[in-house]
Amino acid sequence: MPLRNRVTELLGIEHPILLAPMDGVSGGRLAAAVSRAGGLGLLGGGYGDETWLRSERLLAGNARIGCGFITWSLARNPHVLRTALDHRPAAIMLSFGDPRPFAPAIREAGAKLICQVQSLGQAQEAVEAGADILVVQGTEAGGHGQSRPLMPLLLETVDAWPGTPILAAGGIADGRGLAAALMLGAEGVLVGTRFYASQEADGHPEAKRRIVDATGEDTVRSIVFDLSRRNVWPAPYTGRVLRNRHSERWLGREAELMQNVEEVARAYAEARGRGDFDIAAVIAGQACGLIHDLPPAGQIVERIIAQARALLGERAPSAPDDEAPASEAAK
Questions:
Q1: Which of 229, 72, 236 is nearest to 139 (CA)?
Q2: pTM, entire model
Q3: FRET label pair with 38: which of 235, 240, 255, 259, CA 20 to 30 Å apart?
Q4: What is the pLDDT of residues 118-158, one digit of tens each?
Q5: Which of 234, 201, 175 is closest to 3 using CA atoms?
Q6: Within the chain, how many helices (H) and strands (E) appear?
Q7: Alpha-helical regions (H) of 113-260
Q8: What angle do CA 54, 226, 280 make, to 5 degrees?
């Protein structure tokens, strides 16, 4: 099972590992670190802050990176895409909306189009848009998504569009996840929460500590944190975050929260400002149960690749073609 495939060839990378473009987390330092380790770092372009995008691209230095956007928000500020394309990104990733209006400009700029999807219908739209790569996101993922678990959705998508390279996303934090994704027909992975818990990730130290201490059962998918920050997403998207005192208070009481939204939103914003994560949300996926430290991002890439190779029995790329595996040489 090779770790060099259509994804690595299309993106010109060594390892089939991409950084999820997490808003507020995947800045220039983190994106550059992942790319320099052989994967592809994607800036978290999120809702489209041009000033942030320019400054983080500068922080990435000469690293070859890409950028990701929330598609429905980009539709309100389409000029932000031009800002990203002016920096000659390796790829643009679009999530949560119809990519077709933006595909021609991305192709014209010479960037690869990566589309994250949470359903077969979205996958069809992405293929029609000419997506170079699909990212199949399961509900295990942190942040926004839908309700389908990764495994069955990944298998259905692989079967339906064999001509399009596919990445798996949601609940993947180590080489076992990469190896499993490859066995299921994907050609790589998009990793978020594991890279959030890294030295280069933007984010409050307390948020990172809570990810390290959490298990997958400590997460919840709801709209409470969106309501609380007055940033309600279109249906059917909800967001996965770590459980905290605020989520436990309002889960199942969303109508009451909306009736008191002014007071709740004010308290929530103040909590975010002071790093109070008993109220403010830590956006993280179920992979947090596999995370136990805060290493450099490059080390995370190395660990994932080494473990996947060991599980899949693949020799390192530097080994000569006629060199026998150690198990064979010992016979």
A1: 236
A2: 0.91
A3: 240
A4: 999 999 999 999 999 999 999 999 999 999 999 999 999 99
A5: 175
A6: 17, 11
A7: 120-128, 150-160, 175-183, 193-196, 205-213, 224-228, 245-250, 254-259
A8: 80
